[in-house]
Amino acid sequence: MRVFVTVVDLGSQSAAADQLDLSRPVVSRYLAELEDWVGARLMHRTTRKLSLTAAGSEILPRCRQMLELSTEMQAAVSEPDQTPRGVLRISVSTSFGQAQLAEAMAAYVKRYPGVSIELQMLDRTVNLIDERIDLAIRTSSDLDPNLIARRLTVCRSVICAAPAYLREHPAPQRVEDLSLHNCLTHSYFGKSLWHFEQDGESVSVPVQGNISANEASTLLRATMAGAGVALLPSYQAGVHIHSGELTRLLPRTEPRQMNIYAVYASRKHMPAALRSMLDFLVARFPEEPAWDIGL
Questions:
Q1: Which is nearest to 277 in space by CA: 73, 122, 84?
Q2: 264 Cβ contact list (under 8 Å, min separation 6)
Q3: For 169-174, which contacts have Cβ atoms below 8 Å and span 24 or more sequence positions?
């Protein structure tokens, strides 16, 4: 596999032979043995260039993974007390990334300077394998049971509006009054119906408004500008409620809660960096998160 990957990367068997300190016939033999083992031709060989077959393109990334794994195995044996290092690719929603995770990652890399973080701010569900994501932070009320995940904390929401909006519109006194307000909604979550728990019972209220967006950070800014009433995650709106930029409405009405999870692809061969990140996030985001204190 190492010969195959090196030939692809360097573009020729001769260059690969020099790089690996092997003879050209040995390189050819290793390629032939790999093709026999796979049961398919991996490369088109001409006098001018080499090109991958469909089968070669299919197994190339898997060969790279195997080589990375072998390197990790060697490191685990030679350095049993190794500290976390390497690159972690993390997918997270724009709102949680901006409001909470960016600061958390600054604290993490200060503790583990050997690790680099690549944050993918995406407001969609990613395929961890296809998009080479090591860890995804997801907010859900019904997580796919086939996923491997660690629950981090609860995600509560709050109904809020800016003082400027409330100076022109009377604050709702009952949850049903929300139907009379200009409600700013998320394109994918509760665009026309908001769900609550009130006195131990589920209540759903139809809402409408003139602004919707596909991510919560935009709704937050529109709400702070006085555009209407919004249902926003407390991890994002809490600091603005404390500062007086937003006013919490109907505090005795509890919007439907969700959970925040750290989702990853496999428990097997987990790198030290990923394991340390999971432990860090569990400690950073407890059951009663700091952003909910005082709300």
A1: 84
A2: 128, 134, 135, 136, 148, 149, 270, 274, 278
A3: 171/247, 171/249, 172/229, 172/249, 172/250, 174/250
Domains and CATH numbers, the chain: 2-78 (1.10.10.10), 86-155+258-292 (3.40.190.10), 157-255 (3.40.190.290)
Let me know: does 269 contact 134? Beta carbons within 8 Å: no
Q: Which two tokens stand for residue 181?
A: 């307000």
Tell me how far apart the alpha carbons of residues 16 and 27 are, in angstroms, rounded to a whole number: 8
> In the numeric block, which tokens belong to residue 279?
């432990």
- Tokens, residue 292: 């909910």
At residue 137 the predicted structure's pLDDT band, cuts being 50, 70 and 90, is very high
Tell me the one-letter amino acid at 55.
A
173-228 confidence digits (pLDDT tens):
999 999 999 999 998 777 889 999 877 788 999 999 999 998 899 999 999 999 99
